[in-house]
Specification:
The chain has 466 residues and is an alpha+beta fold. Helices cover 37% and strands 22% of the residues. The protein contains 13 helices and 19 strands. Strands 9, 12, 15, 16, 17, 18 and 19 form a seven-stranded mixed sheet that branches. A four-stranded antiparallel sheet has the order 1-8-6-3, with no helix packed on it. It is globular.
Length: 466
């Protein structure tokens, strides 16, 4: 009989923590080796944690929505046929099976409601409708300021935003007793539980809890479900990933000065070449040849020519990236968006690029991406032409400074110049839409970069090998 510690596995060099989103196994459940025990999520990727051994789950050391560091023990599994259930599990079972007086239940609910509102320490504030700067969020996390408390602070910044001074003043007031801490509230409640009725406890909570903390409790208990204006409407809550995407997009628009450049490209030679070699390519390489790796190859070359586009911004500092890591925006079956990254894209030939594009795209659709697959991007490409769009104005993937949208390839009439004169012909053309951060990228650089991508595409050698 042995106790095995299930730890949060390493998920990539750039991933240090993850949030537990769901327990797939409960205490007392039997687990087979390699069977998924729980689901976790990083900022961009959801995945499962399998068990390395067979046995019975006897302890869950973290709950849903808890943030766990890589290497931390998250569960205890009893192995080798015997199960020595922990004392905490036995206590839980006794509590479950023992009748509890109605007053005690009400007392417990009151305490838990106060704890949840005043003592919760969310690790991020993506669920809030308000915008908080990274500095304010970090201070809130360090000082255990809950999202309800943070939202209640009256900001003195532009558009009533909470500033560094506002959050520090709030923390100081809370420490000095002007604002009651969760510990004060809970202790006050405990002192009354031995001899007072639930009504008295509620009054004690109100007396010791700031109004800002009481109001969310009442709202949570009595908040009405939104009612549709007519019977045919449906109200759906955003899922976790959509909330994250929403937060990223709003933050990007508020951070970067977005500006766009557009250019039309003649890709007739590329279309003809792909049509000529795609069957042989798939037979030899076992991979389908799409237009995406050809476009990615041109973007990687252009980034080598214009390293000023392969940068990121950190406050007042510009970071020049050594590696060219191309992000490729991919739509998931549920409608959400994810951006896996092709590392060192400039070092890949066309075959290597096609394999990387297909591998990441297939794993994205199957939900099999690893957290490290979405980290470290230095520039992003999104193919809006997949959905028939002629061009688009994509939002920058922070902290990058540029993103390129590939429009749909269309047959259009065009003027063709020849030594014998000009004439009208049918050509395959597409638009490239380049969004870039005008804080650090001027129009000359942004426009020259997308023009260079176009030049590489139009100069494509129709006789090249793959």
């Amino acid at each position: 009989m042995a106790r095995f510690e299930l730890k949060l596995p390493k998920m990539g060099e750039s991933v240090a923590e993850a949030t537990i989103t769901n327990w797939l196994k409960e205490v007392g459940d039997k687990i087979e080796a390699d069977e998924a025990v729980l689901e976790i999520a990083t900022d961009k990727v959801d995945s499962e944690v399998p068990s390395e051994v067979s046995g019975i789950l006897v302890e869950q050391l973290f709950g849903k929505d808890d943030l766990v560091q890589v290497g931390q023990t998250i569960a205890i599994i009893e192995t080798e046929g015997g199960v020595e259930i922990s004392s905490s599990f036995l206590v839980d079972k006794i509590v479950e099976e023992t009748p509890i007086p109605a007053e005690a239940v009400e007392i417990e609910k009151t305490i838990e409601a106060v704890k949840e509102t005043t003592a919760a320490t969310p690790e991020d504030f993506s669920g809030s409708d308000k915008f908080f700067s990274p500095l304010v969020k970090n201070i809130a996390k360090e000082e255990n300021v809950s999202i309800a408390e943070l939202e209640s602070i009256q900001g003195s910044g532009k558009d009533a935003r909470v500033t560094k001074e506002d959050i520090l003043k709030y923390v100081e007031d809370r420490k000095s007793g002007v604002i009651a801490t969760p510990e004060v509230v809970v202790e006050a409640v405990k002192e009354t539980t031995n001899e007072s009725k639930p009504e008295t406890i509620k009054e004690t909570v109100k007396e010791n809890t700031p109004q800002k903390a009481i109001e969310p409790v009442a709202q949570k208990s009595h908040q009405a479900v939104p009612v549709s204006v007519n019977g045919g409407d449906e109200i759906i809550e955003m899922d976790r990933m959509r909330k994250l995407i929403s937060g990223y997009m709003v933050a990007s628009v508020q951070t970067s000065a977005h500006v766009q450049s557009f250019i039309e490209v003649d890709v007739t030679n590329i279309v003809k070449w792909r049509e000529k070699v795609k069957t042989a390519f798939e037979k030899r390489e076992g991979e389908k040849l799409t237009f995406t790796p050809i476009m990615m190859e041109a973007v990687a070359k252009a980034l080598k020519d214009f390293p000023g586009m392969n940068i990121s911004v950190d406050g007042d500092y510009i970071i020049k990236k050594k590696n060219i890591n191309l992000g490729m925006a991919a739509a998931l079956p549920n409608g959400n968006l994810i951006v896996p990254v092709i590392k060192n894209a400039d070092q890949l030939n066309l075959v290597g690029m096609a394999k990387a594009v297909n591998d990441l795209g297939n794993r994205a659709k199957a939900g099999k991406l690893k957290p490290d697959d979405t980290q470290g991007g230095t520039y992003t490409v999104t193919n809006v032409g997949t959905f028939g769009s002629v061009f688009g104005t994509p939002i920058i993937n922070q902290p990058q400074v540029g993103i390129l949208a590939l429009g749909a390839i269309r047959k259009v009439p065009a003027v063709i110049e020849t030594p014998e004169g000009d004439f009208i012909g049918i050509r395959q053309k597409m638009f490239l839409s380049h969004s870039y951060d005008h804080r650090v990228v001027d129009g000359a650089l942004g426009g020259s970069f997308v023009k260079r991508v176009a030049e590489y595409l139009e100069a494509f050698d129709i006789d090249r090998d793959f």
